[in-house]
Each structure stands twice: as C-alpha cells, then as structure tokens.
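Box 3.1 A note on notation
Throughout this textbook, protein chains are presented in two layers. The first layer is the amino acid sequence; the second is a token string describing backbone geometry. Keep the layers aligned when reading.
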Amino acid sequence: MTERFTSYAEFWPHYLREHSRAPTRALHYFGTGLAVLCIVGAAASQYLWLIGVAAIAGYGPAWIAHGLIEHNRPATFTHPWWSLISDFRMLFFWLTGRLSPELHKAGVDRQDEF
C-alpha cells in the first residue's frame, strides 16, 4: 500500500526511515555523486548521452540498495520529485555532519556511520 503525503515535511521522515541502514545510504551517496559528475560532464563536453548515464548511475545503486539491503520499494516510484530532493538533502546533511539528528527525529535507531 502506498502512503500518501500532503506535504514534503511529512515525506522527509518517511524517506529517512526507508533509508535506515548505512549501506543503503552509502549506495545513495555513491549514485548521487556519479550522477552529478555525469551531468557536469555532459555540460562540459556537450555529450548529451551522459544525461542518460546520469540517470542510470544515480538510480542504479539506489534501487539495488532498496532491493538487497532495505527490502523495500524506492520512493522514486511513488514520489519522484520529493525523492530526488531528499537524495540531495540526505547527502548534504551527511556531508555537513548533521544527518544523525535528522535520523533520530525520524525514529531511525540504527545510527551507523553513513
């Protein structure tokens, strides 16, 4: 059953709970980083096919993580824009050392490294 959210503020804690395990988050960071590199590469080189590679590089590791680690369905399928925003938000919080409090507020007890 798909959860319905009326605001992004409701979605964000759900997103974090769906990414409760550190390896899942690590694969998301990896994929997001690769996607950004591909987009920058496409802009710099004018090779527009890199945009397609960016989508595969970004979503591939994330979907693998959901299937093999979290055993849940990626939020991309039900909330594509909020999910994309949340991928970058989670990465930003991790890079700035502020992810742990966000996970705690969302009710994620497993606070391993990533």
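The mean pLDDT is 93. The chain is about 70% helix and 0% strand.
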